[in-house]
Design a protein that fits this description.
The chain is an alpha+beta fold. The protein has helices at residues 16-52, 75-81, 132-138, 285-288, 354-360; strands at residues 55-61, 64-70, 91-92, 104-109, 112-118, 121-127, 148-150, 161-166, 168-179, 183-192, 196-200, 205-216, 219-232, 237-244, 258-262, 265-269, 271-281, 311-313, 324-327, 331-337, 346-350, 363-372. The chain crosses the membrane at residues 30-48.
Length: 377
């Protein structure tokens, strides 16, 4: 048994709705492309307008302000437009390739030449600094506190300004010096006049001084002593100077120097002793240490027997033994004896009486004429 279907194929129809839908969907992307193109055109136009529109630039040339309206795109174009040239030593606060924006600030400082002298050598240098101190720093010139700068650091820079830097250097050196010893002279009354005796040898001392030397550009200009210290003291040389009057050594051949007459006695003498001291002695124990029982009692050093009015004791270095002398106020006497206490210009006059010898005592200021071995007649 078969069955036959009664279904038939549907018929296709068109309508306004079915036509409009496919058209709108297919062209949507074209609308987007067109819109993007229009937006890009507007943005490009705006950018082009900005780039081609005049911009206000504040330009300072050596601190002289200028307000410029320009369409230049870069700093280099602006400078070319304004006929401004930047040299090797000039300063520009922005790069030449920088693009100019509205209200940009551009500063130019032109360098000026200065005549710089350092260590005596002069050369031309260029600087944009305002003062001497700034110029030296700008040029890399090292200056310490001792160096001299002319003119001063605060002096304003002008074209062809002369600037001098003097290098000041201080050096401290040690100088060792000898201290000379002093010579000290002392009087010695036991030493004969004209003679000297070295008591202490002199020795030089030593001192060290700190010397400050100042150099200007390598040349010494001054020198001063900062301090001095004594390392070793000097030792004085001590010399004794003789003050004792010399004793003349007389002999029989010594010539007579003059002739005198005393108490009717005329004699020639070889020497005069002034300011002679006189004492008196006797032959006893008190003067000689001998009594009458002693075999040498009354015997003089020369072997004679003491006699009042003749015998005297003397210093043989002053009056030779056996010689006659004339003592002013006393008379003729002969040097026959000596004594331990009789030294120099001292004469001991012999007296027989102990009492008279004691009474005579010590008397000064006598003048004695030394005559010789022969008694005047």
């Amino acid at each position: 048994m078969s069955f036959q279907s009664n279904e038939t194929e549907p018929v296709k129809r068109s309508s306004a709705m079915s036509f409009a839908y496919p058209f709108t969907r297919g062209n949507k992307k074209w609308y987007m492309i067109i819109g993007a193109a229009l937006l890009a055109s507007v943005i490009g136009w705006l950018l082009w307008s900005q780039l081609t529109a005049a911009k206000t630039v504040y330009l300072s040339v050596d601190d002289q302000p200028l307000e410029i309206s320009t369409k230049a795109e870069t700093v280099a174009e602006l400078l070319e437009e304004e006929e401004l040239v930047i040299g090797e030593f000039d300063e520009l606060n922005v790069p030449l390739e920088k693009e100019i924006a509205d209200e940009d600030h551009i500063q130019i400082k032109y360098a000026v030449p200065i005549q710089l002298t350092i260590a005596g050598e002069q050369e031309t240098r260029y600087t944009t600094a305002a003062t001497v101190g700034e110029a030296l720093a700008d040029l890399g010139v090292a200056v310490d506190g001792e160096d001299k700068i002319f003119p001063s650091k605060l002096e304003a820079i002008t074209p062809d300004q002369k600037v001098t830097v003097i290098d000041i250097e201080k050096k401290v050196e040690e100088l060792e010096e000898s201290i000379p010893f002093a010579q000290v002279k002392e009087e010695d009354h036991a030493l004969t006049k004209g003679k000297q005796r070295l008591v202490q040898e002199g020795k030089s001392g030593k001192k060290v001084s700190q010397i400050e030397k100042i150099f200007a550009d390598g040349e010494q200009v001054s020198e001063s002593i900062l301090a001095t210290s004594v390392v070793e003291e000097a030792i004085d040389e001590i010399i004794q100077i003789g003050m004792k009057n010399p004793v003349t050594v007389l002999s029989a051949t010594s010539p007579a120097i003059a002739e005198a007459t005393m108490n009717s006695t005329t004699f020639s003498y070889k020497q005069v002793l002034n300011n002679v001291t006189l004492t008196a002695y006797d032959a006893g124990v008190g003067s000689t240490g001998k009594d009458k029982s002693h075999p040498q009692y009354g015997v003089t050093y020369t072997g004679t027997t003491v006699a009042e009015g003749r015998t005297i004791a003397v210093d043989p270095k002053v009056i030779p033994l056996g010689w006659w002398v004339y003592i002013d106020g006393i008379g003729l006497r002969k040097a026959e004896d000596t004594g331990s206490a009789v030294k120099g210009k001292h004469i001991d006059v012999y007296m027989e009486s102990v009492d008279e010898a004691k009474q005579f005592g010590r008397q000064k200021g006598y003048t004695v004429y030394v005559i010789g071995p022969k008694k005047p007649s």
